Amino acid sequence: MQHHKPVLLNETLEILITKKNGIYVDATAGFGGHAVEILSRLDDNGRLIGIDRDAAAINYLKRSLTDSRLNLLRGGFSDLIPLLASIGLNKIDGIIFDLGVSLFQLKELSRGFSFTSDSRLDMRMDTLQALDAWEVVNKYSPKELERIFRDYGEEPAYRKIAKAIAEERKHRAINTCSELAVLAEQFCRRMGRIHPATKIFQAIRIEVNDELGELRKGLSAAAESLEVGGRICVISYHSLEDRIVKEFFRKDEATHQIKILTKKPVRPSEDELKKNPSSRSAKLRGAEKI
After folding, report:
1. Angstrom distance (rounded) from CA 146 to CA 55
2. What does the pLDDT look like over 40-89, one tens digit per residue?
3. Does residue 182 sit in helix, strand or coil?
4. What's the pLDDT band for 114 if we cut at 50, 70, 90?
5. Radius of gyration of the chain from Cα atoms?
6. What's the pLDDT band for 2 if we cut at 50, 70, 90?
7. Which pLDDT tens digit goes with each residue over 118-132?
8. What is the mean pLDDT of the chain?
9. Are 208 and 132 in contact (CB under 8 A)?
10. Which helix (H) or strand (E) holds 98?
11. Helices 177-185 & 198-209, crossing angle to 10 degrees?
């Protein structure tokens, strides 16, 4: 079962893998797209730690990927150091972060990520956490909604949409993704084939999962955990993520902690774009611990 086509796969692994017997972390193990290929490039002494905060992803990998070199752990980016410690590790040779939402999460309508879902608004990557998209949409103040639509969605019509949501919920709760999408469509401009509610959904998802905060904590933990010569690769899909990665790399390079390996982000080839149009916004950045 193919849930996710890994983006920039060869380009990423060419940067990431420096030792066939090394210890590597896939911090967004998902449904194994990168994990399978990383394992194929390691020898019998190599090791891969797959981490994901989505229980469905971890459970799928436990069933489908049996390899004695693989450890699967549930947790977020900010849990990296304690997760490694739990299996007796404190240093690694490389780590990959493939950010954003997976195809499985989008297509599993009950997860409440999709514009077309008639399930309850959810968008939690970790289904054990309390905050979900329904809570954000129905309980946040108009000012709080404006903030996330402006800062996390970069949506020009952020005030109009926040006001419309506040007016709508005076009469009834906004329960499903499709209800929210229909409301947002009235104010958001369609950009080509991209759904007009995309930026609103992105903003809510980022808020629910604290994606930017988790990314900052994960980058710091990764830099601390890398051996000298170890490498970090990050694939991002929107400007907010990419900006955080770029600034983190520049700061650590300026203090002689890392060396940036990608002076400009690596983008998908024309061939990859034809085969996988969803890769169009992907940017890969890599760095090495010095």
Report:
1. 31
2. 999 999 999 999 999 988 999 999 999 999 999 999 999 999 999 999 99
3. helix
4. confident
5. 19
6. very low
7. 889 999 999 999 999
8. 93
9. yes
10. strand 92-98
11. 130
Distance CA 262, CA 273 (A): 20
Give residues with Cβ within 8 angstroms of 59, minimum separation 6. none
CB 43 within 8 A of CB 20: yes
- Model's pTM, two decimal places? 0.93
Q: Quick check: 238 pLDDT over 50?
A: yes
Cβ-based neighbours of 86, under 8 Å, separated by 6 or more: 73
Tokens at residue 221, please? 């933990």
Q: Is-contact 92 37, C-beta < 8 A?
A: no
SS3 of residue 233 by DSSP? strand
**148-161 pLDDT, tens digit each:** 999 999 999 999 99
- Rounded average pLDDT over 241-256: 98
Of 26, 46, 44, the closest CA to residue 35 belongs to: 26
State the Cα–Cα distance between residues 162 and 147, nearest whole angstrom.
9
- Distance linking the first and last C-alpha atoms of the chain: 40
Report which of 124, 278, 112, 111 is spatially closest to residue 194, judged by C-alpha positions.
278
Q: Which whole-number Å values give the CA distances from 226 to 115, 177, 219, 284, in the listed order?
A: 39, 40, 11, 19
